[in-house]
Amino acid sequence: MKRKYLIGNMKMNMSYEQLVPYFKGLKVAAEETDNIVGICVPSCYLDLAKQILDDSKVLYGAENMYYKDAGAYTGEISAKMINDFNAEYVIIGHSERRQYFHETNEDVNLKIKKALEFGLKPIVCFGESEQERENNQQLKVVKDQIESALSGIEKSQIENIIFAYEPIWAIGTGKTATSDQAEEIAEYSKSIIVDLLNVTKQDIVLLYGGSMKPANAFELLSKPDIDGGLIGGACLKVEDFKGIFDIIVK
Ligand code: PGA
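^ thats the input. predicted complex w/ 2-phosphoglycolic acid below
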C-alpha cells in the first residue's frame, strides 16, 4: 500500500473546548490507519496539540510563521517558537495568506528557508485563481510560484519539504478540481521541481488541496502524482477526516 499524507488545515476555526475532544478523537482514529496523519492548528493551540498529540501518530504544526528570528514584529510568531512545541509542520504561502495578508512569493521563499533552519517541514502552497485558469495561465502561475519558492533551496532539503497544489477556485467552495485536472498540475509541478533541484520524482511529496472530502478523496488520491491531501473544511470533524484517512490506495 502506498502511504498518503493527510494533513488538516484547521484555519481560524475551533475553540479550546472543542479541541480537547477533537484531538483525543483524532489520536484514536489515527491509530487505525497506515496513512500519515497531520493537523495544522492556530498557533495558540500548539501547546494543547503538544499535550494531547505528542505521543501519538498524529503529527501537528502551525498554519503560518514569520521569517525573522525575533524582534519588533507585533503579532507574529517565529519558527523557533513553533519548534518549541515539537511541531512537525508549518503551512507556508497558503492562498488565503497571499490574498488577505499580501504575502508575496519572496516572503514565501524566506519563510521556507527559516522553517527548514529550525527543523520544521514547510507545507508549501501554490495554485492558480479562477481567472488565471479561465485565461489558461495555470501552468505559468504554478511554475512562477514554485521557482521563486525554491530559490536558494538545496537538493538535500527536498526530503523536508511538502508541496501542496491548491487551486484557489477549489478552496472552501465545494468545487473540487477533477482528479485529471489535479493530476495534470501535480505531474507538471513535480517536473519543475525535478529540474530545479536535480532530484527525482520519487523524492517529492505533493498534496492536493481544495474541497477534498471522503466522497472524492479516493479518486484524487489514486492519481500517481498526488501523494496526499491538505484538507480544510473536512478536517474539522474527526469522522469526516477519518473518512479520508481510512482510504487505502493500493
Ligand atoms: P478546503 O481547504 O478543504 O476547505 O477547500 C483546503 C485548504 O485551504 O487548505
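The chain has a mean pLDDT of 96.
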